[in-house]
Amino acid sequence: MSEERAQDGEAVVRAVEAVAERIETERAHLTDLDSAIGDADHGGNMARGWAAAAEAARELDDPDPQTVCKTVGKTLMAEVGGASGPLFGGSLVFASADLDDGVTAESAVAFAETYLQKVEDRGDARVGDQTMVDALTPAVHTFKKSIETDDLAPLEALAKAVDAAERGVAFTVPIRARKGRASYLGWRSVGHQDPGATSTLFILEEVLATAADALGTDVPDVDATSPTIPDADGDSVEGDGADPAAEDDD
Fold it and tell me: In CA terms, which of 46, 56, 73, 189 is 20 to 30 Å from 19?
């Protein structure tokens, strides 16, 4: 194994440990959210699963990113009850295959897209169903565009993705749940924040913080807004935020 892949593997282990600590810290908050529209087990299940995942990751010899993610995914599937185990864990097992050659901007985008696809397939959920997909989709789309179209550094792209996920979490509050236990409440689910979307945000925040620490820098202070404006030919140009339609009216 190359030194770079070994360092990346160690960073992924640290990210898993950070996520486990964050989820434990937020256990009561996640339980409260799930108590309103679910069965009040999301906080406990996630805390137990991520604690076990962190322990499994620490026990790996010479971990590489793919092995760590696959191990964490399998552990989450075994330890997290309800639908969250297959959603968070099973999707991670599939996505880990995209890290076969290590962590690069390209493999990170592929990993994110595979993870999102598997979550959508397993949960049969789409944006607007008041699920974790509402946080994950804008995060993945923003990360992909930031890398492939806006040509941003991966850390800045990840920071934008986290902001996008935060906006997605807020989006779950005023909409009606159409999947999961919350959907049984019908219109009574409106006005409640989805716990799965919330824990997804916490995970992404810890991954971002760990990545910044590994690079020896601060977390970029950015939002999800794109720095480029698409032109008529489908390419992107640097923009100042002005409204192109308004300019056409002059």
Answer: 189
State yes or no: pLDDT of 239 exceeds 80. no
pTM here is: 0.91
- Whether residue 152 is contained in a domain is answered as yes
Angle at 88 between CA 187 and CA 121, to 5 degrees: 70
Strand ranges, E, within the chain: 228-230, 236-238
Instruction: State the total domains in the chain.
Output: 1
- Tell me: the pLDDT tens digits for 62-71? 899 999 999 9
Q: Which pLDDT value is given to residue 124?
A: 94
Which CATH number does the domain housing residue 42 bear?
1.25.40.340
Own/partner contacts of 123-126, CB < 8 Å, gap of 24 or more, are 123/83, 123/87, 123/179, 123/180, 124/179, 125/178, 125/179, 125/180
CA torsion 14-33-29-50 (nearest 10°) is -30
- CA torsion 178→182→188→192, rounded to 10°? -100
Cα–Cα distance, 127 to 121 (Å, whole number): 13
Please calculate the CA angle 137-116-205 and round it to the nearest 5 degrees: 65
Phi, psi of 103 (to 5 degrees): -100, 115
Residues in the chain: 250
206: domain range?
A: 3-220
Per-residue pLDDT of 98-155, as tens digits, reads 999 999 999 999 999 999 999 999 999 999 999 999 999 999 999 999 999 999 999 9
